[in-house]
UniProtKB/TrEMBL annotation:
This is DNA mismatch repair protein MutT. InterPro entries: NUDIX_hydrolase-like_dom_sf, Nudix_hydrolase6-like, NUDIX_hydrolase_CS, NUDIX_hydrolase_dom, Pre-Nudix. Pfam families: NUDIX (PF00293), Nudix_hydro (PF18290). It comes from Aliarcobacter cryaerophilus. Residues 101-230 form the Nudix hydrolase domain. It comes from the Bacteria. Keywords: Hydrolase.
Amino acid sequence: MMKSSIEYIANFKTSLDPYNGITILSEDLPKDILEFEQNLKDLIQNVKDNKNLIWMYIDIKKSDFIPIATKFGFTFHSCNSDYILLVKVLKENAIVPNLANHTLGVGAVVINSKNEILLIKEIIRNEYYKLPGGHIDDAEMISQALSREVFEETGVVAEFEKIISIGHFYPHQFHKSNLYVLCLAKPKSLKIDVKDKEEISEAIWLDLDEMFKRDDIHDYTKTIVKSALSGQGLYKSETPILSHLKNEFELFFVN
């Protein structure tokens, strides 16, 4: 029988991670700060010789616990809007996985049967018309993000066809890198009805030949469109080769 990864140590419910560390969730912390301090002291004493790391999530509602943790050598690792993740390194050579160091975005080349391309103009950066696109949300697949962004910015329903370009930009937001995935998409509707009126001032269908001639469309956009028209790209695989995984995934291969 496989040994459970859950273990109670010094009144903390802990789970073992792949790096021989233990993780404590915020909901498993005591309510009393004095109890937390004593339990944390006991925990470190109990695991310092046989574990590499202690990970601890602290909810924003328990933010007064943070100075206690840092007093015992915990450092900041990453955070979200409602929690912070701290880590204490117990062994000098312990592997501490890096926090996410890239943001992800997706853009879409959408061409209709009239040989027109879908373009948008932003309210703030409005020098050029550009391809619709934006950030990929947490837990969102590339193909899902593409359809959502196109619909929000133009009102057009679009379906992913293939990846045609990947751009890597640094520095981007929050001093991180950005990976921007450009895709070809097939329109399932044609009516323009901008939903995101706070960011997008205009969306248009523009004849492809005219697009290549205009000065208010950046050469970067024109290069991406040329790539989309070349017929090459990475197509989403329907092969269930990783179907044993519980998490969602998308795989893309040269056709």
